Amino acid sequence: MRLAGIVVIFCMIITAAALPSKNNNNDIAASTRRHLHDPRHQHHLRGESSSVRSQVVGNVTGHTQIFCHNETQPPIYFTSQPDNGGPGVYLLNADPVRHGAVNGTMYLFYENDHDFVPYLWTVVCFLNPLLLSSTKILLLPPNPPGGAVFVTPCPTFEGRIVRGDVSNFDGRKHLLGTWGELSWSTNGTAWGDVSLLEGNDGPVLVQALDAANKYKGFSIDVLSNAPAGAWAQKLGTGSWCLDKITSEGGNSVTRAWETQFLDPNSVYLEDNINPVINSINGRFAVTFYAGVV
Ligand SMILES: *[C@@H]1O[C@H](CO)[C@@H](O)[C@H](O)[C@H]1NC(C)=O
Ligand SMILES: *[C@@H]1O[C@H](CO)[C@@H](O)[C@H](O)[C@H]1NC(C)=O
Ligand SMILES: *[C@@H]1O[C@H](CO)[C@@H](O)[C@H](O)[C@H]1NC(C)=O
Ligand SMILES: *[C@@H]1O[C@H](CO)[C@@H](O)[C@H](O)[C@H]1NC(C)=O
Fold first, then answer.
1. Which UniProt keywords are present, listed alphabetically (predicted)?
2. Closest Cα to atom 4 of ligand 2
């Protein structure tokens, strides 16, 4: 335990040195303000960003999302919080690659319909593979080991966790990629799923940490051998990953490729099959495997 704690702290120090600080945050605020008068800001993804919302609320039109964060404010950097058994999410990095200047991978939490500015962000170093198999996680509360962070978003959080980098702070939409979607109901139940509707930049597994031991998502690589027509380029980094497959404007080559390997009951591949699980204690683990930033 003591050793694990030291690894976490070391990982975070590197992060703080390598990544944005006050100056950058001012730039973020400035670029965000510019978007207040941008017509794109009025465009909401209600149809596209789908998923968890419809499960949680049932009556979408009667639902008013209570946002955690105002998009005029810079994203909030967090480090792992102690796990005292309450609601929250373990975010695990099972991607051995160091992406960009960070020792590990940067992750961002976006709220639904706040697509321009992330709510939370952090960097997680590579998880000790001994702590993880594709379906089982060994966690050591109260202090998560290196490669895992624990965080409790605000109680009304509805949104997604994605891979990213500093270009996610440019005030533009960065939708392309795999979404690990989570939301919390007012009664403490949390909901989770993995969606490929807006793209696939690598595997993500979402696991309920209540007694039922449910999980959704996938851990296999479907990018490596994908056909030429299945790819799309990320805004910002310019990296290539698999294209979006939304019902409107989705890439049919990508959809045909992914449905050969993945099950719509495990991961969002269609708008009308909802592979969503709940966790009655409000606790989830979300694992990101090797992917593209
Ligand atoms: C959905 O919620 C709205 C507002 O609360 C209500 O007027 C409407 O009747 C509800 N629709 C259904 C199908 O329950
Ligand atoms: C967000 O912050 C701006 C500037 O402080 C403020 O004008 C606006 O009302 C806030 N929006 C919400 C939804 O709180
Ligand atoms: C980077 O993270 C790994 C854990 O994945 C850790 O063992 C290593 O000490 C870290 N390196 C630096 C330079 O922080
Ligand atoms: C909590 O609320 C959700 C809807 O938001 C509902 O589906 C679920 O059954 C509720 N759980 C309990 C234990 O009441």
1. Signal
2. 72
